[in-house]
C-alpha cells in the first residue's frame, strides 16, 4: 500500500501543476464587449482628459481639447487637428464632427463633413 500512496501523491501533484499551467493571464482574456466595452472606452477617454459623449450621429466618441486649440492659423498644417476657416484658429475640439469650413494644407477654404 505504501507504493500506491506515493504514486497517488505524485499523480495529484502532477495534476495540480498541469492545472496551474492552464490559468488565464490578463493577456489571454477576451476584450470586453457591450456595456463593459463602452465603460472601458469611457474610462480610457476620461483618463486622457476627454469627454465621452454622443457625436450627434448617435455614436459615442471621445472628444478632447487639442494642445493648440484657439491658436491662430492660416492652413491646416498650422494645427494638430484642423484650421477653422471662419475664425482662422485651430479647432477647439477633436475630432470635429458635422460640416465645418476648414483651411487645407494649401490655405484654401473647403467644407469638410464628418459623421
Structure report:
Strands 4-3-5-6 form a four-stranded antiparallel sheet, with no helix packed on it. Strands 1-2 form a two-stranded antiparallel sheet. β3 and β4 form a beta hairpin. It starts with a helix and ends with a strand. It is of the alpha+beta class. The relative contact order is 0.11. 29% of the residues lie in helices and 21% in strands. The chain contains two helices and six strands, in the order ααββββββ. The model has no long low-confidence stretch (mean pLDDT 86). It folds into two domains: 31 residues, no CATH class; 51 residues, no CATH class.
Key words describing this protein structure:
115 residues, alpha+beta, 2 domains, four-stranded antiparallel beta sheet, two-stranded antiparallel ribbon, 21% strand
User: What's the gyration radius in Å?
Assistant: 27 Å
Number of strands: 6
* Helix-strand topology string: HHEEEEEE
Shape designation: rod-shaped
State the separation between the terminal residues, measured CA to CA.
76 Å
Strand content: 15-25%
Helical segment count: 2
- Which stretches of 5+ consecutive residues score pLDDT under 50? none
Instruction: Please state how the strands of the largest beta sheet are arranged side by side.
Output: 4-3-5-6
**Which structural class do the helices and strands define?**
alpha+beta
Number of domains: 2
The largest sheet is: 4 strands, antiparallel
Secondary structure: helix percent: 25-40%
Mean pLDDT: 86
